[in-house]
Write a structure and sequence with these properties.
Mean pLDDT: 86
CATH class of the largest domain: Alpha Beta
Distance between the termini: 35 Å
Helix content: 25-40%
CATH superfamily of the largest domain: Response regulator
Order of helices and strands: EHEHEHEHEHEEEEHHHEE
Radius of gyration: 18 Å
Strand order of the largest sheet: 2-1-3-4-5
CATH architecture of the largest domain: 3-Layer(aba) Sandwich
Number of strands: 11
CATH topology of the largest domain: Rossmann fold
Low-confidence stretches: 127-132
Structural class: alpha/beta
Length: 232
C-alpha cells in the first residue's frame, strides 16, 4: 500500500492539534479523518475504514483510555496514544488497555510521523518473516502467519498488532531467549531507550490472553535476568 491508500483517524478535543496533525499527515499523502472525542471516534470507526488512530487521553464524554478499551473489543488497528501526561502510570495504563504506542505532548511532528509510518508498516506486513508464511505450533499454541492468527487449542486469541509481533518473534524462534531490548528493537524497529515497562506490559497482556494461569505460564516463559522465550 502507498501512503495515499491509508486513512488515519485523529482524535483530540483541541482543534488546533487536530488541524496541525492533519497538515503533516496530508503532506505525506495520507487521508485524515478527525474527531473531537471518543464518542465521535467510535461513530466514524463504525462507518469508515481506518488503518491507524492517533488518540488523545484527556477528552470530554469519552476519554482516550475508555475509547481504546471500546475499540479493542472489535478492532486490532494500531492506536497511538497522545497525551500531555508524562507519568509512567499513564503510559502503562494506555498500553494495558490496548494502545500500541505513546507520544507525549508537546511532540515533535517528525517523531510522530516516524511512529505513524512504523505502525502502518507493521500493520500491513503482519505475519511475514523473510517472505515465508507458515503455521507454527507449540503444544497447542498455534500461529498461522498467512492468516495472521494465533489460537490456543483451536480457540482464537484477539491480539493487538504489537502483541502479535511479539508472539510471532518468540514463536518463530521458539526456545531462544530474547532480552527486553532485543524484543523492543525487533518489534518496534527503533533503538531501545527505557522500554522495560513498555515491553513488560505487552508481555503481561499476552500472557493473560494465551495462558490458563498467567502467573504460572506454560508457553511464554521468563528467564530471570535475561529475558523471555516461548517454550518449545
Amino acid at each position: 500500500m502507498t501512503n495515499s491508500n491509508y486513512s488515519i483517524l485523529v482524535v483530540d478535543d483541541d482543534k488546533e492539534i487536530r488541524d496541525a496533525i492533519d497538515i503533516y499527515l496530508r503532506n505525506e499523502g495520507i487521508s485524515v479523518l478527525k474527531a473531537k472525542d471518543g464518542v465521535e471516534a467510535l461513530e466514524i470507526l463504525s462507518e469508515q475504514e481506518v488503518h491507524l488512530i492517533i488518540l488523545d487521553v484527556m477528552m470530554p464524554r469519552l476519554d482516550g483510555i475508555q475509547a481504546t478499551f471500546k475499540i479493542r473489543e472489535t478492532k486490532n488497528i494500531p492506536i497511538i496514544i497522545l497525551s500531555a501526561k508524562t507519568e509512567d502510570t499513564d503510559k502503562i495504563l494506555g498500553l494495558q488497555v490496548g494502545a500500541d504506542d505513546y507520544v507525549t505532548k508537546p511532540f515533535n511532528p517528525l517523531e510522530l510521523l516516524a511512529r505513524v509510518k512504523s505502525q502502518l508498516r507493521r500493520y500491513v506486513t503482519l505475519g511475514t518473516y523473510d517472505g515465508v508464511q507458515k503455521v507454527i505450533d507449540h503444544n497447542g499454541l498455534t500461529l498461522d502467519q498467512a492468516a495472521k492468527e494465533v489460537t490456543v487449542h483451536g480457540d482464537p486469541v484477539k491480539l493487538t498488532p504489537i502483541e502479535y509481533k511479539i508472539i510471532e518473534l518468540l514463536m518463530v524462534n521458539a526456545g531462544r531467549v530474547f532480552s527486553i531490548h532485543e524484543i523492543y528493537e525487533r518489534v518496534w524497529n527503533e533503538p531501545c531507550h527505557n522500554a522495560e515497562n513498555t515491553v513488560a506490559v505487552h508481555i503481561r497482556k499476552i500472557r493473560e490472553k494465551i495462558e490458563i494461569d498467567p502467573k504460572n505460564p506454560r508457553y511464554l516463559k521468563v528467564v530471570w535476568g535475561i529475558g523471555y522465550k516461548i517454550e518449545k
